[in-house]
Amino acid sequence: MRDTKESRLLLVLLIAIAFALITVDIRGGRNSPVDGARQAAAAVFGPIENGMSTVVDPVGNAVSAVRDSGERHDRLARLEKQNATLKAKLGSDDRNRSRLTQLEKMLNVAAEGQYGIKGAQVIAIGSAQGFSWTVTIDVGYNDGIKRDMTVLNGNGLVGRVTTVGPDASTVLLANDPDFTVGTRMEGSDELGFASGQGDRPLRVELLDSKAEVKKGDRLVTFGSQGDKPFVPGVPVGTVTRVDPSNGGLTRTLYVTPFVSFTKLDIVGVVVEAPKKDPRDTVLPAKPRPTPTPTVTVTVTPSADASANASDTTGEQQ
């Protein structure tokens, strides 16, 4: 539009009308006479505003995304922390399940042998006493523990208590070279003495040099006078080797212990001996031998062989 006298007059007139309409609208309030015109304008220009907002919204969304990115980062960090906590809890639950299994096995052994036991946990390996194969458990004389008590777990003989403190005790393990326990063979009742050899199988000297022993035979504790340091019937191990008898006074066996001395956690101290020798009842059930499959081969003559046989018979006739 050109800047002329008429255009300036028109602009002044439009401004005056606009001010007049604003004044009337303000004074009218809710009953403003221009309210209908405002609604009509909204109906006309509303779609145009929506279109413009559609164009502008992606920018606004991007700004919001930048603003919220910190919140999402914090949320991700929280989720990662929760996952780590859950994994740690799962690991803890796995360990608890393992310990619960050990405890159940030990209680079954105690029930079978009628042993009164005090449960304990291994809290240290080795001790200040100089023994090469010892562990420290978290019970002591405040818990009724005394020297020369039998220690077992769900698999069998662990060792014997050697020193006792207020809340902790030292256990000499059955595989220590200074450890000796009287044994009895399952079934045959052959007596002997088992000695520790560190990480090698126990060495057992049978009193009868002519005793019949074979690989796979099992031993339990014979028991001590007054049930100290050993109660009877605790599983010791399985015979894995038998030395030939050379006319000596004893016969030497080598026995793999039932207990893994490098994986000790939950153990029990026998604080009350059984009223009666449990004999072999505490031993686990023997595994059933796997039957060897028998294959029967049946030979069926082929059609060609049958035909040749018929031809040969005809020629002979």
Provide structural commentary.
- By secondary structure, this protein is an alpha+beta fold.
- The chain is 37% helix and 24% strand.
- The chain has helices at 5-28, 35-113, 303-316; strands at 116-125, 134-137, 150-152, 157-164, 169-173, 180-185, 191-197, 200-206, 218-221, 235-242, 251-257, 266-272.
- The strands form two sheets. Strands 1-2-5-4-3-12 form a six-stranded antiparallel β-barrel.
- Strand 3 (150-152) and strand 4 form a beta hairpin.
- The protein is elongated and about 145 Å long.
- Mean pLDDT is 78; it is low at 41-50 and 52-69.
List strands and helices in order, with pairings.
Layout: H1 5-28, H2 35-113, E1 116-125, E2 134-137, E3 150-152, E4 157-164, E5 169-173, E6 180-185, E7 191-197, E8 200-206, E9 218-221, E10 235-242, E11 251-257, E12 266-272, H3 303-316
Antiparallel strand pairs: 1-2, 1-12, 2-5, 3-4, 3-12, 4-5, 6-7, 6-9, 7-8, 8-11, 9-10, 10-11
Task: Name some characteristics of this structure.
six-stranded antiparallel β-barrel; 317 residues; six-stranded antiparallel barrel; single chain; alpha+beta; 3 helices
Total strand segments: 12
Q: Please indicate the percent range of residues in DSSP E strands (runs of 2 or more).
A: 15-25%
Shape estimate: elongated
Helix percentage? 25-40%
Mean pLDDT: 78
Q: Tally the helices: what do you get?
A: 3
Rg to the nearest angstrom?
46 Å
Low-confidence blocks of residues: 41-50, 52-69
Order of helix and strand elements from N to C terminus: HHEEEEEEEEEEEEH
- Main sheet, how many strands, which sense, barrel? 6 strands, antiparallel, barrel
- Helix/sheet category: alpha+beta
End-to-end Cα distance? 135 Å
